[in-house]
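Try it yourself: sequence plus zinc ion, in.
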Amino acid sequence: MAAPGDRSGPPIEGLKAAVDKMAAWIGQADGEMLGDALIQIREAGIDPLEAVFATGVRRFDKSGEYKADGALSLTAWLRWKCKLSGGAAMERVEIARQLEKLPQTEAAFASGEVGYQHVAVLARAAEHVGAAAVRKEEGKLLQAAQTMDPGQFVTVAKNFEHRVDAAGALAEANHAYQRRYFHIGEPVDGLVRVDGLLDAEGGATLRTALQPFMKPIPNDDRSYGQRSVDALMELCRQGGSGSRRDGAGPRPQLIIRASLDTLAGTKGAPAGELDGGGTVPAETVQRYACDSAISRITGQGELEHELNHASRTLPASTRRALEARDRHCVFPGCTRPLTWCDGHHLVWWTRGGATALPNLALLCRPHHRMVHEEGWILQRTKEGHWKAKPPLHRVPANARSA
Ligand SMILES: [Zn+2]
Ligand SMILES: [Zn+2]
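Structure, out:
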């Protein structure tokens, strides 16, 4: 709706023309000029426009005009009409309400000196400790905002909140802590969904613990998310006990129920059943059967009997000899350390391969998986070199739906 006395609509034509001009220009620009243009688009375009948007939202909030469209709240209206997510809409309402009480911030926002996300941090601080407290240090806070990215600025704002309202900051931290949870779903289609919220300390602890396991391996085509989950699995498997991999220490073991046919890889055999719920294909059972330190397989006794009492348990002395010989994952190009490795049977134990040094190799988990589940072939030459041959038929990821 137009302002009283002004029957013309908002000056959208000028705005559109400027956007078109910029679009044409940016299509041609390169190098340093392109970088400068990106900065200008935010400082002279997006951020000042967000400041104008905030002013409009505040007036719209006070007028209650959004109710005319049937929306129950301004946030709901912004989600609906301005195509914003709930969080983004709420943030804009909060900024609009707080900016009125933070004149210096409003001016810095309008001139592009601070960005939208800086302003969001300040608005949240004002919401927590009151705009009056923020106003007392507004100049200093804005100065800090101009020299750091929004992520760093959050730390400054949190420190400020703590200084002016330690009890409030503690209450907020305690409230956040109460919301912590971690949920592990039931397996569906071979996947288990996990989700959760960690308090800041828990998040930092997890991140720090995962860090040593996050390093990419050579020719790593895993995504960041995939490397993260692999790192989490490494962390869980190593169990933090610091014990050696000879099975002597209290290491977390996976318990798999498998039939003799599954272990032997007989066609038509049932899947392996995980003690914690869910099933795994025979190839996975066979991989776990490779190293007794990582699994206990019920049903194994029968097979051991069948294989003339050939135990799959790696005696500590054999494990030590294996570690001394291989030193790390033997897959060509891989150097992942001992603690990440399983003892792999070159002639699979489930096919009668002996648990003896000449038939053993250290393989890290991703490579051990590639050998059993993806069909890579690992060989040791007479000279003691390792060769890996890619699978003849790759198991396509969508084989089941074909
Ligand atoms: Zn193996
Ligand atoms: Zn490896």
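One thing you can check immediately is this: Residues 329, 331, 334, 336, 363-364, 367 surround zinc ion (ligand 2) (CB under 6 Å).
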